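User: Can you write out an input/output pair for a complex, sequences first and structure second?

Assistant: Here is one pair. Inputs:
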Amino acid sequence: MRKRQIFLLALLFAVLAIASCFWLDRFQLLLVQSVATAGVAALALHVLTGMAGQISFSHAGLIGIGAYAGGILGNAGGDILSLVGAGVAGAVAAALIGWPALRLRGLYFAMATLAAQFLLEYLFKHLEPITHGASGLLVRPLTIFGYPLASDRSVALLSIVLLLMSWLVCSAIAGSHLGRCFIVVRESEIVARGMGINVARTKLAAFVISGSLAGIAGAVFAFASRLAHPETFSLSMSIDYVAMIIVGGLGSAGGALLGAGFVTIAPESLQRVGEALNLSDRVFAIREIVFGALIILFLIFEPSGLRAIVHRLGSRGLQFSREMSSKIKRRKLVR
Amino acid sequence: MMVAIADIGISGLAIGSVYALIAVGIVVIYNASGVVNFAQGAYAMAGAYATDLFAGTLGLPIWVAILLGVLVLGLLGLLTELLILRPMSGAPVVAVMMATLGILIIFRGVVLLAWGPDARPFPSPFGLGGVHVGSIYVSYTYLAAALASVIAAGFLLVFYRFTTLGLLQRCVADNPRAAVALGISIDRQVGTAWFLSCALAGFGGVLMAVLGGLHESISHIGLVAFPVVIFGGLTSAGGAVVAGLLLGLLEALTGGILVTVFERWLRLHTSIYSVGALQQVLPYLALIFVLLVRPQGLFGRAQRERL
């Protein structure tokens, strides 16, 4: 019952978002698209960190792999297969990174992914025959079954559809045997081994699923910006994603989406405020300071993240409406 | 050829000794509180800028400025522990890592805001010139950087072995519960560890600025220091020193010799023209190798897990 409710809610939300796309201006469409794309990538990290409890600093690298794979396939006329190919490339890269990292846990796993992030950044920059090096890979608009997605609106629609699909994948995993295995591994690897769960294989599965989602998000990045550039997929992007799922509320898909929206929109609005206050030359530095401070404040004062705040507001609203309705009823009874 | 290699080796050891200082700081904090401090590089950067503030803007003699800078950094570390890490005790490891990353982001933002993105010259306290050892020329700066790191590491060793405070530190690192039972205040010891570690990092940052100029990118050293820490063993300060020197040497040799050889080969056989700064990713290649072969590092203890 509850599951169906969530599904209907997600569907309703997606339909509303898609409908709203038709009367947004270009900048708003860009925001919608970047939030939705970031949402897909945040869900990818949620599978690995939120569900299976492994910290990754290499997600920008995986997103980059998807961007390059999608861009190259799309330029070669890959049609919708370039999205699939990006997902596969992300999964393969994740498996390659995950292979050595399998035996590691906690901090050591994080370190291995940090190393992988730097290696991938280096490869993006220097494998010139494939990635076009520091000048970046120019990407032609994606075509889906021959229909080119050239406008901002169509890319935004694509990203919303993909977000809905990855949300469904995530909730399907959460309810499956595999999802339960992830949670046991997260809570205690020893207990998981005791229950007969193959810890290494479970972690690898989480990483591969996560990598394929990240790869798809990367392809959308590339098709939206028409460019795959090595500077984009840097460590600071990886940190942004970890920040998203923590600020949103670790361990819940909804939290990951809230975090994706927050981390994408907050800097943008700070930029606006800075420009309005005539501080545009310093706005980058101020943005960084505020972003860092927000992360720390959240971690100290609201460890369960935005999700908890929304939850509290929601239940307060519900309580309020209940009180109001009972008051009205009482009044009717008095009469 | 031999002279060239020796030159490269010396510059590698100088940089490596700074890596060692930063890495030792990370180990000190990890041992005391189990916190993995990603912001160590930010403290190094802050140390360099604070020293510059005292020496350049206030016009104090450079040695006094360094001393003040290191002291201020120690206090900053103490403050960080008190305001950010202590309220977070008991939070999951990811959250604590993220908090230290937040500190890194804030520090970098502050430096960008106050000093801008351009590199600035840094006054050398060691003077120009150098000494000749046979036919090898060693500049005072390199010599002093290496020497200063050795002295700092030696000081740490003496501190841990022969002072009461050092004993308390080791006690907390070894067994926090027993430490509490003996009446040792863990909070105070963790605070001390942060003071020490950040002061060391500040000093490392000053050396870094002397070697390569004052720039916001000094904070990157914190991330390079992680391969060093893992390489040496997360819990071993001595290991961090050895690994720091090794990695510095390896990096300099790669940058000085291997890159040219490798590029020549690549140009002959592929269309890749440049391999760029291969030496910058080398620590991470080494890190992956070490994690595969010996995850506990050269001198670390293998972790045992209990329920």
